[in-house]
Amino acid sequence: MSLEIVILAAGQGTRMRSALPKVLHPIAGNSMLGHVIHSARQLDPQRIHVVIGHGADAVRERLAADDLNFVLQDKQLGTGHAVAQAVPFITADTVLVLYGDVPLIEVDSLLRLLKHVGPQQLGLLTVELDDPTGYGRIVRDADGQVTAIVEQKDANEAQRAITECNTGILTLPAGHLGDWMSRLSNNNAQGEYYLTDVIAMAVADGLVVATEQPLDAMEVQGANDRRQLAELERHYQLRAARRLMAQGVTLRDPARFDVRGDVSVGRDVVIDINVILEGKVVIEDDVVIGPNCVIKDSTLRKGVVIKANSHLDGAVMGEGSDAGPFARLRPGSVLEARAHVGNFVELKNAHLGEGAKAGHLTYLGDAEIGARTNIGAGTITCNYDGANKWRTVLGEDVFIGSNNSLVAPVDISSGATTAAGSTITQNVDNQQLAVGRARQKNIDGWKRPEKIKKP
Ligand code: UD1
Ligand code: CA
Questions:
Q1: Given this chain, do its domains 3-220 and 226-434 carry the same CATH topology?
Q2: Measured in angstroms, how far is the CA atom of residue 176 from the centroid of ligand 1?
Q3: Number of neighbouring beta carbons within 10 Å of residue 44
Q4: Does domain 3-220 sit in CATH 3.40.50.1370?
Q5: What pTM was estimated for this model as a whole?
Q6: Which of 2, 78, 365, 388 is spaced 20 to 30 A from 320 at the CA atom?
């Protein structure tokens, strides 16, 4: 069986009250349409057609990819009309229809639907809802065979009482589509070309309609306004949290944890509350992440400890290294095994060798720090001269006293020491002590100024 997928994404989404096209609104850091495309790709279709209309340029620009065929639907005349726009491009024998604003559909449910449907059958994903208001109803005959879908606005009293609803997601035998599309009419309560009218046509043509249900009704829930968007977000996050817990992660509170990207985890990882994981994050065994941390595009090797309120972006932390509380590791920060970064320390494009330490109130930018080197509190690299960035290179076992300014480019060789309060502008050799500050002067009998009395 060859498969192509049509994703409907042309609608306006007025209730979002937004300049952003509805399908570009994010769930977990990715657009709703992006999630649907991601799921669609996992079914390995020949091609994915995305029907766009409102905000077409923005949607195309954001999501353009080789396997996507964007089809413009100038006017939104209904779901049937939308699918008809894609039909001329279809060469496969089965078509699956998905929706750009129904982002949580699981690949598993789609696979079950596809497996269930024979080559000359129509497949419907339906859902039982306590409150079916607004949905198309699944009409079955005395034998339980589906005969039609009736939209809410066209339904009679008895049909409105049906609680089995159309999710909109369906599979169609492509060979019939040209014919069915040409026979659609907009002679109905909404004056639209309904995709759902093909069900009755298929039955009249002697085809059987197979149905399947998603495991969870949230999978087929659309987002029409920001409240529904938020509900889908929370559902997505809970699902992501459960997946991680199943892999051996302790989440102190799964309701206060957000993933916005791809996370891989080892065993016995502990994550405290209000942690956000963004982009591609790799977490190995025994990592502990304290509360209120944001970790983006970073790798945390075995046994890493990150304390409260730390912010990582593009960092690699080696085995047993630790950072925080209040550490900021910017892109290019690399900590080798057992390196230590303490509170109010900022790193950017800085490499800390094995066991190196920067415990307090420090900025290290464009720096190479050798193994076991210790950076005193309040030290900064002066890496920028207003025009160019320069490197600071420290050897192994260097001791930088507190409150140093290391004016780059500068080299401090292994075993060297700098005195507290130094401004280091020249290279320092092995084992030397550099004192880069004015000598202290003590003045005897110093009189403090006296307050001038007002007349
Ligand atoms: C549709 C179904 C209904 C089902 C419901 C599930 C039809 C006629 N009805 O109704 O049976 O219960 O979904 O949510 O199909 N779209 C386009 N172009 C158009 C019209 C719609 O791209 O011309 C897109 C919309 O952006 C949206 C989707 O198709 O993503 C569904 O359209 P909508 O008008 O919301 O259909 P419903 O009335 O909800
Ligand atoms: Ca809808």
A1: no
A2: 21
A3: 7
A4: no
A5: 0.92
A6: 365
